[in-house]
């Protein structure tokens, strides 16, 4: 399925002028189709890695990089908001370090910049969350391969068929829409649900 980078063809109803508001309807429909079983598997994996003392590293490009940062923030901050015993999460977005990202992009290659961070920072007990609409971004694919080779657990928040990334993750959560904006919006909602679910599960352990 081809990816649509944005369309203004759909209106709020069949007669209204078309100004792109159909994104709202397409987002709701895409949310309904997300596999909840895969989301539960992702929560369980986040919890298991946290219980074993592992860290969670997230990565993405563009809008997906901001979702990665948001997800990491929620995982790190949310436990402190719970009114019961909690276990801390240690999470970080690999794309948040401009120094490391640009150093390896300059000294090696942008395609390998995330993979080199993974090799330098991660241990086998850690987990990588890859967020990508196409699942085919070269730096994301390289990062997942590096994490796999190190024995790290891997979760993918992906679009449509998941691309190459789907074969490189333990849990793939797919958003079935050809519209980048829809997929990115649903990914953020999924990130909220996963963070809340994992933190709640850990606080109850």
UniProtKB/TrEMBL annotation:
Transmembrane segments: none
Record GO biological process: carbohydrate derivative metabolic process
Matches recorded under PROSITE patterns: SIS (PS51464)
All copies of domain SIS, residue ranges: 42-205
MF-aspect GO terms: carbohydrate derivative binding
Domain of life of the source: Bacteria
Protein name: SIS domain-containing protein
Species assigned in the record: Kineosporia babensis
Lineage: Bacteria, Bacillati, Actinomycetota, Actinomycetes, Kineosporiales
